[in-house]
Design goal:
Number of strands: 26
Strand content: 15-25%
Bound molecules: 5'-O-[(L-methionyl)-sulphamoyl]adenosine
Radius of gyration: 29 Å
Shape: globular
Helix content: 40-55%
Number of helices: 22
Distance between the termini: 104 Å
Largest sheet: 7 strands, parallel
Length: 634
């Protein structure tokens, strides 16, 4: 018999209720122009925490991350490393994969923009937009920063330079295909203002609204292939390649569709997309405009987290002050690094990171608080046994606050609450003295609380939580979080965390430290006493050639013309200057130093530079006007 309309409506509703809710989360895809640094690890760990949390709540989760592999910046990096772009991106992408494996990241796909499936998807997108006349041929003229791989407006520049990369942008005017971004201005403004396209935190939403109000211009989405060949060919004009951003954005579509049409339909659009503010503008304008133009739904939330800083400076590959995440994970272990990243700064605000604070948190929080609770309680439970009763400690657990924190992306606050409960449990052990009373009920309450704690900590420190669950014999099921622990024999647990010896100073990474020492070497080569000052021979040199040194991130090999002779000088200035900025630059050279061998190359002098106190800025000393090479500095 045919169903009445009402019946089918009810059925659909019922079916809907039975369906598991889905959760689709993404990270930015990371540039493969250099080895991974801790910044990318931060976003990916945060996404993993949210993915696991939603899994714990019973949702069906899809978690996407990956690498962004086309464009000028990457082609340049490959050339400097004497590799083809494909060889180079294969290498760096594999490093990201390995890092995410070490960090215990539970991603469901790892998308690479050089994957043929992705390239095909991008071409389809471009064809769709071209056929809808949202892409047209024209010219584009603007400042372009290769470091950002983004166009900048005049107001973005500081002293004519990109403030982030300290390099002069190129002024570009060339034949290009443009995307009609301007036609989406009003729509985007409304969607963001109403919260339908939700940008969090609020301060970021306001920034974006202000930016959109100031006017959106059509944006060039292609580059001449003769100039940039490392990119996807435009399907309707083979003379052009696609600009990296539309290519990169489409990973959020192709990375899902790669797993099947049904997977795409089930999960799209993203529930949340994590990133830092450096890429918010483009994600708040070009990305949703591409989706609207091609007829897709918009993501629900963009959450913009803070930057890691080192002594207050943004950590970035271009500035050369990056922390090596491999070093941290290998030295301190996956869970300690994950925990530190999530606990140390409010998610959404900037904050300093250092090895010293990592060690402090590892020792004081993971080892002393969590580790001690588990080992003391398990040892006492082994000795005296446990007896089921109502767990009075649960009333002190702020579960609703923790759930609210997680929902609001306040990951650090959720950890604070969980650790406040761990403190309560430790105090309970102290005050109830079960080693004297042998009170089996108190021990049951503590074991039951450990079960809850490890479940709540699972998204953050999955390996440790898994160990606790295995040891005490329970499974993770959030619906059972408040159901009593099922009685069984408990044995004393092995220590979860070993204490780490305190260090006095922050070390950036072994590799960097080694290089820093070598740079110090360059700077110290000519240390002379005051009475020897007169012997110092300072000359003006003109830099003729700039080359990389294999295996050195900071050093450059310079061929310097000193008038009557050429010298090779090794200098630790790679993070501060581009090769183009150095070529033909006049500098001041200490010309009478003993030669020194570094990284297999002999340095025949030293150049002079001004260095800011925190070493974030290094500026070469240069004569104010041009003068012949070899001129004496007196
Ligand atoms: N490839 C583009 C993104 C394309 S997404 C369609 C890109 N890549 S990136 O490698 O530069 O990564 C930028 C992202 O890495 C930031 O938005 C942020 O998520 C993360 N971080 C990079 N440096 C960081 C810090 N110092 N601190 C926190 N996060 C950092 O932009």
């Amino acid at each position: 018999m045919a169903k009445t309309r009402e019946e089918s409506k009810n059925k659909t509703k019922k079916e809907k209720n039975n369906e598991r809710k889905t959760f689709y989360i993404t990270t930015p895809i990371y540039y493969t122009n250099a080895s991974p640094h801790l910044g990318g690890a931060y976003t990916t760990v945060a996404a993993d925490v949210l993915a696991r949390w939603n899994k714990l709540l019973g949702k069906e989760v899809f978690f996407l991350t990956g690498t962004d592999e086309h464009g000028q910046k990457i082609a340049e990096a490959a050339e400097q490393n004497k590799m083809t772009p494909q060889e180079f991106v294969d290498k760096i992408s594999a490093e990201y994969k390995e890092l995410f494996r070490l960090l215990n990241i539970s991603n469901d796909n790892f998308i690479r923009t050089t994957d043929p499936f992705h390239e095909k998807e991008v071409k389809e997108l471009l064809n769709t937009l071209y056929n809808k006349k949202l892409i047209y041929k024209g010219f584009y003229e603007s400042y372009y920063c290769v470091g950002c791989e983004q166009y900048l407006t005049a107001s973005d520049l500081v002293d004519g330079k990109c403030p982030l990369h300290n390099r002069e942008p190129e002024l570009k005017k060339e034949e290009a295909y443009l995307f009609k971004l301007s036609s989406f201005q009003d729509k985007l403004y409304k969607l963001i203002k109403s919260g339908e396209y939700c940008i969090l935190p609020e301060i970021r939403r306001k920034e974006v609204l202000k930016f959109i109000k100031s006017g959106l211009q059509d944006v060039s989405i292609s580059r001449l292939k003769e100039k940039i060949s490392w990119g996807i060919e435009l399907p309707f004009d083979k003379k052009h390649t696609v600009w990296v951003w539309p290519d990169a954005f489409w990973n959020y579509v192709s990375g899902l569709r790669q797993k099947g049409k049904d997977v795409f339909e089930k999960f799209f659009p993203p529930d949340v997309q994590l990133m830092a503010k450096d890429i918010l503008r483009v994600h708040a304008t070009i990305w949703p405009a591409l989706l609207l133009g091609a007829g897709y739904k918009l993501p629900k939330v963009l959450f913009i987290h803070g930057y890691f800083t080192i002594n207050g400076k943004k950590m970035s590959k271009s500035l050369g002050n990056v922390i090596d995440p491999f070093y941290l994970v290998k030295k301190y272990g996956t869970d300690s690094v994950r925990y530190y990243l999530m606990r140390n700064l409010p998610f959404g605000s900037d904050g300093d990171v250092s090895e010293k604070t990592l060690i402090d948190r590892h020792n004081n929080e993971l080892a002393d608080k969590l580790g001690n609770l588990v080992s003391r309680v398990s040892a006492l439970a082994e000795k005296y046994g446990i007896e089921e009763c109502d767990n009075s400690l649960i009333t002190k657990l702020k579960l609703e606050t923790i759930e609210k924190n997680m929902k609001n992306y306040e990951l650090d606050k959720a950890l604070n609450e969980i650790f406040a409960f761990i403190d309560i449990c430790n105090e309970y052990v102290q005050s109830k003295k079960p080693w004297e009373t042998h009170d089996k009920k108190v021990l049951f309450e503590l074991v039951d609380s450990i079960k809850i704690i490890s479940m709540l900590l699972w998204p953050f420190i999955p390996e440790t939580s898994g160990k606790i669950a295995k040891h005490f014999g329970f499974v993770f099921d959030y619906r059972e979080i408040k159901k009593p622990y099922k009685l069984q024999k408990i044995r004393k647990a092995e220590p979860l965390f070993k204490k780490i010896e305190e260090i006095k100073e922050t070390k950036i990474s072994e590799k960097e430290n080694k290089e820093n020492k070598e740079i110090e070497g360059v700077k110290n080569m000519g240390t002379i006493k005051y009475d020897e000052f007169a012997k110092l021979e300072l000359k003006v040199g003109t830099i003729k050639k700039v080359e990389d040194i294999e295996g050195a991130d900071k050093l450059l090999k310079l061929s310097v013309d000193l008038g009557n002779e050429k010298r090779t000088i090794i200098a630790g200035i790679k993070p501060y200057y581009t090769k183009d900025e150095l070529k033909e630059k006049q500098i001041v050279v200490v010309a009478n130093l003993e030669p020194r061998k570094m990284k297999g190359v002999t340095s025949e002098g030293m150049l002079l530079a001004a260095v800011s106190e925190d070493k974030s800025k290094v500026v070469l000393l240069s004569p104010e006007k041009k003068i012949e090479a070899g001129a004496k500095v007196e």
